[in-house]
TrEMBL record:
InterPro entries from the UniProt entry: ATP-cone_dom, NrdR-like_N, RNR_NrdR-like
Transmembrane regions listed in the UniProt entry: none
Zinc finger (unnamed): 4-35
Species annotation: Pusillibacter faecalis
GO biological process: negative regulation of DNA-templated transcription
Record protein name field: Transcriptional repressor NrdR
Function: Negatively regulates transcription of bacterial ribonucleotide reductase nrd genes and operons by binding to NrdR-boxes.
Length: 152
């Protein structure tokens, strides 16, 4: 039931439906069953807010731009298209939304980013991992590199 914006009647019929916003919503043309005027509505999936639990226990709302920013820094001067990083950030956000957990630790987010970067660019992966995992010395750094080499 959708209230007519012209006469406030509670019933209308759908005349046309089509995907909008790259398939993330549906655009519907409706006709009021009382006054006959037409109007457009959009239907989208409700996204629930996600809270990120940081290492120090503090909480803040999830921001996909922060995920993207971290990947951009890791991919600096690397042959990774920006569109690929945007796609990864979208995938991570969607995975987190689908998990139905409203509180997500930075560890989970960091692991997902590393998982995706590892497949795209190994140098970017090591850069991100070195900051994320806070490599204490050259030995921890070398251990991660050796792990990568042994997987080849």
């Amino acid at each position: 039931m959708m209230k007519c914006p012209f006469c406030s009647y509670n019933e209308s019929k759908v005349i046309d439906s089509r995907p909008a916003d790259e398939g993330t919503s549906i655009r519907r043309r409706r006709e009021c069953l009382s006054c006959g005027k037409r109007f457009t509505t959009y239907e989208t999936v409700e996204s629930l807010p996600m809270v990120v639990v940081k290492k120090d226990g503090s909480r803040q709302s999830f921001d996909k731009r922060k995920v993207l920013g971290g990947m951009i820094r890791a991919c600096e001067k690397r042959p990774v298209p920006f569109a690929e990083l945007e796609k990864i950030a979208d995938e991570i956000e969607q995975d987190l939304q689908n998990s139905m957990d409203r509180e997500i630790s930075t560890e989970i987010i960091g692991e997902r980013v590393m998982e995706k970067l590892r497949m795209v660019d190994q140098v970017a992966y090591v850069r991100f991992a070195s900051v994320y995992r806070q490599f204490k010395d050259i030995d921890t750094f070398m251990a991660e590199l050796n792990k990568l080499l042994s997987e080849k």
